[in-house]
């Protein structure tokens, strides 16, 4: 049986032993999906690539996205109170890179559709999730936005993955390392690295 040591939540403290690079290396060991998150900012749209996205609750349906406080999308989250998430499919690395860069030309020549909340949805994504912001929590150099899902759509397909700073793909056969052209599989992971 677990013993409760304190009812008081622990307060975050800076640890000189953990550097930002150390944390990046450790967090990079956690394979994630890749999303594009869009918001309305005044008369236009902003978007960003995010792999710090997770479901929070089934009832009510809640998700969370972590946004750097310096991100140009911050103003849109605060002003519109809504965001849309497109879960990227394998082969959408170019879209991930486009939305990871700064600047306003992310939507140029991209045939997006507008969802129920009037926010852009990335074409051919595996899932579209539209949310109203119900909470925002400042956490270090990021803001955690919790959104209640108001609309979603899902299609079958294979996800775009990110691990150790590289885009990855699932190995459909779970075969041995090196199975398949232009890729390798980490032992026991079922994750292939694209080298093309």
Describe it:
The chain has 196 residues and is mostly beta strands. The protein has 2 domains: 31-163, Electron Transport, Fmn-binding Protein, Chain A (Pnp Oxidase, Chain A, Roll), CATH 2.30.110; 164-196, no CATH class. 12% of the residues lie in helices and 40% in strands. The protein is built from 3 helices and 14 strands. The protein has helices at 20-27, 74-80, 93-100, and strands spanning 32-33, 35-41, 44-50, 53-57, 62-68, 82-87, 113-114, 120-121, 127-139, 142-154, 161-163, 166-170, 183-185, 191-194. The chain has a 7-stranded antiparallel sheet with strand order 3-2-6-9-10-5-4. It starts with 19 loop residues before the first helix and ends with a strand. Residues 1-6 and 175-196 have low confidence and may be disordered.
Gist?
The chain has 196 residues and is mainly β.
Cross-sheet strand order for the largest sheet = 3-2-6-9-10-5-4
Measured between the Cα atoms of the first and last residue, the distance is 51 Å
Quickly name the level 1 CATH class of the largest domain: Mainly Beta
The number of helical runs is 3
Largest sheet: 7 strands, antiparallel
Give the overall average pLDDT. 80
Helix content: 10-25%
Please indicate the percent range of residues in DSSP E strands (runs of 2 or more): 35-45%
CATH architecture of the largest domain: Roll
Order of helices and strands: HEEEEEHEHEEEEEEEE
Overall tally of structural domains = 2
CATH topology of the largest domain: Pnp Oxidase, Chain A
How would the global form be characterised?
globular
Decide which structural class fits the backbone. Answer: mainly beta
Number of strands: 14
Low-confidence stretches: 1-6, 175-196
CATH superfamily caption of the largest domain: Electron Transport, Fmn-binding Protein, Chain A
